[in-house]
Structure prediction request, 397 residues.
Amino acid sequence: MERDQFYSLVKNSVESRRTELCAMSDAIFGLSEIGLQEFKSSALLEEYLGKNGFAVERGVGGLETAFRAVWQKGEGGPSFGLLCEYDALENIGHACGHHMQGPSIIGAALALREAAEKVAPDAPYRIVVYGTPAEETLGGKTVMQENGCFADIDVALMMHGAPDTCVDVKSMASREYKITFRGKSAHAALAPDQGRSAFDAALLTFNALEFLREHVREDTRIHYTVLDAGGPANVVPDHATAQYMIRSYDTDYLETLIPRVEDIWKGACLMTGTEYEIASQNRFWGKIPALALNDLIMEQARAFDAPSLASAREKTGSTDFGVVMYRVPGCCIRCAFVPHGTSSHSQGFLDAGLTETAHNAVVFGAEILAATCLRILEQPELLEQIKADFAARKEGK
Prediction:
C-alpha cells in the first residue's frame, strides 16, 4: 500500500472520533479521581470500548478500577497491548496528563482495527486494552502483573503528555518504604532516661543514608522524609514514621542495595533501643529499552508531523510501566502539549489539560500508536526484529 494512503487511513479514522475522544479526555480531567478511586473514569473508558465491540473485563489484576478489553480477529498473529492510566494527583488534579491517555489509546485501538481491514485484511491479530489505575501511588501495573496481567501481549504501548514528542531510553528502578519506628514514651524533662525515642531512630537512619551515598554507583538516588515525628518536643516519642525511596537505572544493582538499607534500619534501632516495622512498600522496575520499537514509533511521529520532535530522553524518573517493559518490548510515546520548561505535577501542566494542544496530543498519540501496530501487522518481520533487540538488551541489562 502507498505510504500516503496508509497514513490517511489512520488519520481519517482518528479524526472521525476526535470530538468524542477529546470530550472523554475533558470529562476525566473534570473527575480528577485519585488512584484506586477512578470508578467513573474507568467506567467511561470501559463503556466506550464495550459499545465498540470489545469484550470488557472489569476489576482485573486484583484492582477494582482496572480493566481488560479485547478485540480479536482470527487465531494467532501479534497481540498488541495498549495501556492507559487515568489517576489524578491528590489535591491538585490531572497535573500529569493521565486524563489524555485512555481516550488516545481507544482512538489508537479503533483506528488500528479499521485500517487493518485495508492494510492487512487477511492477517489475524489481537488488540488488548489494559486500564491500569494508581500509577502515581500504588504502582498499579506492578500489582496487576503479579496477578497475571500482561502475559497475553507481544508489545506494550502507551502515550503520555510532555513538552516534547519523544520516547524514553530508560527509567529508574525504585524501592519505596514506609517505616514505623516504635520506642517508649516519657517526659522529656522529668524522666528522659525512661524513654526510648523512635524519632531518634529515624534521624539516625537519615544520617546513615547520607554516608551510604558515598559508596553507591553514581546513578543511585536516595530520598527520605518524616511523615510523623511522634509528638511535641517535651515528650520522648514512642513512635515515628518515615518514608524512604532508593532508585537506580539498574534493577539488579538496586536489589543489592536493599540489604544495606535494611542494616541501617536495624542498626538505628540497636542504638536507640527501639524497633521498626515496614508499614508499606512499593517496587518499580527499570525499563529494558526496545530501541527498534522506539525507532519505529518515532518514524510514525515524523510521518504525522507531530509537534516538537526531540531525541529520546535519557534522564527519567520511575514508572510502574517498567514492570511491563522488563518482560515484554514496550514504549511510551510522549506527545507535546505544554511549553518547554513545564514540569509534570505542576500548575502549568494542570492548566494545559483542557487546551487545544492537549486535544491534539490525544489525536497524535492515537495516530502514532495505531500506525506503529499497523506497520507490524503489515510487516511481521518487524516484530521479530523488535523481540530480538529486546532480548539482547535484557540479556545485557
Summary: The mean pLDDT is 97.
